[in-house]
Each structure stands twice: as structure tokens, then as C-alpha cells.
Write a structure and sequence with these properties.
Elements lengths: L1 H4 L2 H46 L4 H13 L5 E4 L5 E6 L3 H6 L3 H12 L3 E7 L2 E8 L3 H67 L4 H23 L7 E4 H13 L6 E6 L7 E4 L1 H19 L3 E9 L3 E8 L6 H4 L17 H12 L3 E8 L3 E9 L1
Parallel strand pairs: 6-8
Antiparallel strand pairs: 1-2, 1-4, 3-4, 5-7, 8-9, 9-11, 10-11
Helix pairs in contact: 2-3, 2-6, 6-7, 8-9, 9-11
Length: 384
């Protein structure tokens, strides 16, 4: 059990978390150290300025000028005891000061929230002193923002990795699904050939003609199913077909298997033919799945309405029923393999239908609208 939990992926995740955590704590340590060093520099700078004002010694003045020249990145603003800027600044944007008369006041408020002012007493009697507010240097800002940037990079890396893994898993699932479909079609091939032979024998047997005719229908149905499964996973040939005729054929097929309490209607908005590029066997399979799904949702009575619209950029096919509808929390799940609200079935019909429309016809299949107790409308979009 332990080796299954602690695999190499878990180990890498723990190492990555440890590295990021260590970097964050070290970055904070560096930031505190740089902040303390900068306060010392500002304090020395302020004291050197005080010494410069209190002396006429050229050596001291040159020394204080050298100290002042060393500060090239820490912004400093001088104020009086009431926090009013005196106009003397260091490393502050002079253009911004010229454009906005309140810029220094805003900057003082910003610096005040980050660091305590350094007070320099100019005289004791009367008491006169200046305050020096300062901000963070570019180096300190970079050190403070570095962990955030690192976290964003790590998060981006994790997202890309998860997308890659998800894409690979979906690709593997598609390959498995296609392989199972082709194997099913292959396995059906042998008994179908045998059944066709038996049907031919029945046709030649007196008195068995009616039985043979019914078996021919079942064999043809099995051949159609086998043909559909055989096309999964391969590149289907799309041909221009009349969508109206294709839908009418499948509606007629489902109507024969429904009760008299279920009514069907097809609205083509007055158009008799609507051409579109489709693979007829696979497209028919999608319509059949949607119609059967609508029939099951109505539990033996209701109305199924099919509307076909020939738009400028696409052909729209809406299949609506007056069944029990789909709850909001289940709408996002209906196309997931294995999801079903029926007592029987594997929950593959809608998932397979969406794959056929999206992957093979480059279109869309989605729930246009649904309301519990009133019904559901599925929409197929076949782009021109």
C-alpha cells in the first residue's frame, strides 16, 4: 500500500513544494536583511546631511557629499515636523513632481505606511527637526516580488503539466475506445456471415419465407451496427447528403418502435432539401441515439419535435422532447462516459454522439435548454 501512495510523482511533488517553500522563506529573510541595511543607509545619509549643514569644513563637506552620492536607488523625501514636504528629495521622479503638486504628499503617505521616518534634530532651542521618509529600492522590491513570480511560474508549469497529462489520458481513452469499437465490429463479422447463410437457406425452404424476411431485417440491422462500430477510430468519408431525408428516415424508424401516445413532428422551415457534409451511418447513429434518449425521457407519452434550420454558416438540428428534463447539476455530466439516469444502459450514447459530431464532423452537440418536468432540447451544429 505504501509504495502505491509514495510513488515518484508524489516524491517530485514533495520536493517541488519543499523547494518553493524554502525559496519563499529565504526570500523573506533577504528582504528583511536588505530593508534593515537600507534603513541604516538612510540614517547615515540623514546624519551626513545634518553634519554638512552644521560645518564649513571642506573635508567634512566632501565626505558627506560622497555619502550622499552613494545612494542611487533609495527614494527619500524631506518633510518638516508636520510631514509637509520641504521640496528636497532624492531619487524621486522630478517629472511626476512637476506635473502633480500633490505627488510628494501622496508619496509621503505611501512611504509612511511602509517605514518609520528618520528624524534629524537641527536645533534644540528652539526645537527644530526634519523628517526623512523613504521607500523601497528596486532591489528590495524585486526580492519581495520574486516569490510571487516564482509561484506563478510553478503554477503555470503545474497547469501545463496537468493539461498535458489530461490530453494524453484522453488520447489513450480514445485509442482504447476506437480499439474496442473495431474489435466489436470484427467479432460481429463472423456470426453475421453465418446468419446470412442461414437466411438464404430459409428462403429456399417452403413455408419459411415470412421468417426469412424478418430475419433479413435483423441481419441488416446487425450489419448497420457493425458498420458503425467499424468506422469509429478511422477517418470517415464525408459526403454531401440531404439532412432532411436522413432525419426523416431515423424519425420513421423510431416512430415504428414508439407507442401511439408519442407524437413526432419535423419542421424544416419550408425547405425540402438541406445539404450538408456528413458520414451517413455515423450521423444516423447520432440522431437515433438522441431520439431514443428523448423517447426514454418521456416514459411512453409526449411529443418529440425536430427542427432543422439552414443558416448561412451552419445547419442547426434541434431535437426537443416533453420528458422529465435534466437538472442543472447534471447538464454538465450528460456527455461524460458512464453517466446515466436510466436503470439500464452503460451511459455511452450521448458521449459517443458528441464524439462523432465533434471529431468526425467538426461540429457541436450540446444541451440547448432543459427544465425538469418540461423537457430537454439537444442541438447539433454542422458547420458549412
Amino acid at each position: 500500500m505504501f509504495p502505491q501512495i509514495f510513488n515518484w510523482r508524489t516524491g517530485l511533488a514533495i520536493i517541488a513544494i519543499a523547494i518553493v517553500t524554502g525559496t519563499i522563506f529565504y526570500s523573506r529573510y533577504l528582504a528583511r536583511k536588505i530593508a534593515a541595511d537600507e534603513r541604516t543607509k538612510v540614517n547615515v545619509w540623514a546624519e551626513s546631511l545634518k553634519a554638512k549643514l552644521a560645518t564649513e569644513d571642506e573635508a567634512i563637506i566632501n565626505f558627506t557629499n560622497a555619502i550622499a552620492a552613494e545612494n542611487t536607488d533609495i527614494p527619500i523625501i524631506e518633510t518638516d515636523e508636520n510631514d509637509r514636504p520641504s521640496g528636497f528629495t532624492k531619487n524621486v521622479d522630478s517629472l511626476a513632481v512637476a506635473k502633480d503638486s500633490n505627488y510628494l504628499k501622496k508619496l509621503v503617505a505611501e512611504f509612511k505606511s511602509s517605514h518609520d521616518a528618520i528624524v534629524v534634530e537641527l536645533s534644540k532651542d528652539p526645537p527644530v527637526f526634519n523628517k526623512y521618509y523613504y521607500g523601497d529600492s528596486s532591489l528590495l522590491r524585486e526580492v519581495r516580488y520574486y516569490p510571487i513570480i516564482q509561484l506563478l511560474i510553478v503554477a503555470l508549469f503545474i497547469i501545463i503539466t496537468l493539461i498535458a497529462i489530461s490530453t494524453r489520458n484522453k488520447s489513450n481513452q480514445n485509442k482504447v475506445w476506437a480499439g474496442m469499437a473495431k474489435e466489436t465490429a470484427h467479432q460481429l463479422g463472423t456470426p453475421l456471415s453465418s446468419l446470412q447463410g442461414w437466411v438464404e437457406l430459409l428462403k429456399e425452404t417452403p413455408g419459411s419465407e415470412s421468417i426469412a424476411d424478418e430475419m433479413v431485417k435483423d441481419v441488416d440491422r446487425l450489419k448497420l451496427v457493425s458498420d458503425r462500430f467499424g468506422k469509429i477510430g478511422s477517418t470517415p468519408q464525408l459526403e454531401e447528403k440531404d439532412i432532411v431525408a436522413q432525419v426523416e428516415t431515423m424519425v420513421a424508424y423510431i416512430r415504428r418502435r414508439a407507442t401511439d401516445k408519442v407524437s413526432f413532428s419535423i419542421d424544416t422551415r419550408g425547405e425540402k432539401e438541406i445539404p450538408a457534409m456528413i458520414n451517413a451511418p455515423l450521423f444516423d447513429w447520432v440522431i437515433e441515439n438522441l431520439l431514443k434518449n428523448a423517447l426514454d425521457a418521456m416514459e411512453g407519452k409526449g411529443t418529440i419535435r425536430v427542427q432543422i434550420s439552414n443558416e448561412s454558416a451552419a445547419v442547426l438540428i434541434d431535437i426537443a422532447d416533453t420528458g422529465k428534463g435534466i437538472s442543472k447539476q447534471n447538464i454538465s455530466k450528460v456527455f461524460k462516459p458512464g453517466f446515466t439516469t436510466k436503470k439500464r444502459g452503460w451511459g455511452l450514447g450521448l458521449s459517443l454522439s458528441q464524439r462523432i459530431i465533434a471529431q468526425y464532423h467538426k461540429g457541436e452537440l450540446f444541451v440547448r435548454q432543459s427544465e425538469p418536468g418540461k423537457g430537454t432540447t439537444f442541438r447539433i451544429v454542422l458547420k458549412k
